[in-house]
Amino acid sequence: GTEPAGAMWLPVEVRERVEAVHSSSALPERLRLYDDWADSYEQNVAALEYRAPHLAAASLAFAFPTPPAEARVLDVACGTGLVARELHRRGFRCLHGVDGSAGMLELAQRTGLYRQLWQCVLGQEALPVPAEHYDAVTLVGALGEGQVPSTAVPELLRVTKPGGFLCLTTRSNPSNLRYKAELEAALERLEKQGAWQKVLAQEVGNWERATSDKESTQGTGYISGVIYIYQKCPVPQLKE
């Protein structure tokens, strides 16, 4: 007989959590969902086979011209620290994190990977850090419908040093396509204005398991996603 589609292999709890945080509920409610989710988040994400943190960290490390131990990185929407763990594995040692959820930040704190952590709801508040402060800024997984609005992207640029890198990801599943188009329009506008240069935009097939068949890419049971890397202008010129 035919195998059931991929989504059905996901534990019900995982499916419901993911659908809840991605549906556009009001912000306080969504932050509460993340607070409640914090303790089981990493097991749930493992069940999803969520590859974004790994792929984003690998791409960022690849973009860096020199070994990154001293590079200052701001991990926005850091959650429990999945991205920090991947960056740390690739030699990044100076990591700061920001998240809207206190429950998530508490777990990020316990990893011991961050030098500083702040609670901040991006899209509603400015980042609590000075301009042109970071060698790299990452925003992995939170650029999506009902999460961080695409209007927050200039705020990420503000805190990045000239020549610094920004690593962003979004999902390409059907319910996020409108948001993705909006995000890409915002990214292109900034590029036309000369704010940054595109280094990479890579579509990835098996981003994570789909939570429903209608979200799945051509019946694979997975959804796809994209990694973008931009470099803030002015880009330093290489010495002759």
TrEMBL record:
Residues 74-167 form the Methyltransferase type domain. InterPro entries: Methyltransf_11, SAM-dependent_MTases_sf. SUPFAM superfamilies: S-adenosyl-L-methionine-dependent methyltransferases. One of its GO terms (molecular function) is S-adenosylmethionine-dependent methyltransferase activity. It comes from the Eukaryota. This is MET27 protein.
